[in-house]
Amino acid sequence: MTENKIHKTYTTISIPPNGMVTAEDLEKIVAIAKKYDVPTMKITGAQRVAFLGMEPGQLSAMKKELNIPDKPPHARNRLHHVQTCPGSIWCKYGQQDSLALADRLRDLELKGPLPYKVKVGISGCRMCCCESWVRDVGLVGNKSGWRLIFGGNAAGKPRIGEIVSEKLSEDEAVALVEKCLNFYIENAKYKTRSARFMERFGIEELKKGVLG
Ligand code: SF4
């Protein structure tokens, strides 16, 4: 351990969703941070706020006040990591409404437990601020609708995802994401990320399973 390392505990909160905050939201976060003397905070890649460097006692009291369970009841048949840009509502380049799509994907109930972590990146235009090509599920908006990409990964063995379909309406995009994830659930071994699954299975097999 280096001299400067602070080995304490932390928690993250994902309120409000989509990383969109008002001045009132920020004031609440600041008030909590001051009340519990939180040493520092981090905006995470999953668009949550992490409270870092806390003593275990402080952390328990804070979680109680925020109604955060000690072990979050993560339903494995739901998506927990949906990262989105502001999209057409808030960004002048946006061509599709990323925020609305993110809310619908977060509500999806899949057929069963996902084999492994699934990260979703939704970008409202081709500038791809949410790095949709290197997410398990990537969505990119353009004038004609949504492009769906599957099987990307930005970790130790990066992989660029492949296009499943294009020119999708919001309803079609939601339905096709659900089909792709259910296909992954039915065919991938436990603890296989979508990138490794796609290397073995191939985009054409996925398309056969989910299109038409
Ligand atoms: S991806 Fe496009 S719409 Fe989304 S924030 Fe970036 S520039 Fe704006």
Structural description of this entry:
This protein has 212 residues and is α/β, with parallel strands linked by helices. The protein has helices spanning 23-35, 56-66, 87-90, 98-106, 170-187, 194-201, 203-210, and strands at residues 9-13, 40-43, 49-54, 81-84, 119-123, 137-142, 145-150, 162-168. It is 33% helix and 20% strand. The strands form two sheets. It has a five-stranded mixed sheet with strand order 4-5-6-7-8. It has a three-stranded antiparallel sheet with strand order 1-3-2. The protein is globular. The structure holds iron/sulfur cluster (SF4). Iron/sulfur cluster (SF4) binds at residues 85-87, 91, 93-94, 123-125, 127-129. Residues 85-87, 91, 93-94, 123-125, 127-129 line the site of iron/sulfur cluster (SF4).
Structural class: alpha/beta
> What share of the residues lie within helices?
25-40%
Bound molecules: iron/sulfur cluster
The total strand number stands at 8
- H/E element order: EHEEHEHHEEEEHHH
Supply the CATH class of the largest domain: Alpha Beta
Tally the helices: what do you get?
Answer: 7
CATH superfamily of the largest domain: Sulfite Reductase Hemoprotein, domain 1
Query: Spans of 5+ residues with little confidence (pLDDT < 50)?
Result: none
- Please state the overall shape, judged from the principal axes of the Cα atoms: globular
Q: Please summarize the sheet with the most strands.
A: 5 strands, mixed
Q: Largest beta sheet: what is the strand line-up?
A: 4-5-6-7-8
Instruction: Tell me which CATH architecture of the largest domain applies here.
Output: 2-Layer Sandwich
The figure for the number of domains is: 2
Spatial gap, N to C terminus = 55 Å
Strand content: 15-25%
Question: What is the CATH topology of the largest domain?
Answer: Sulfite Reductase Hemoprotein, domain 1
Rg (C-alpha, Å): 19 Å
Query: Average pLDDT, to the nearest integer?
Result: 90
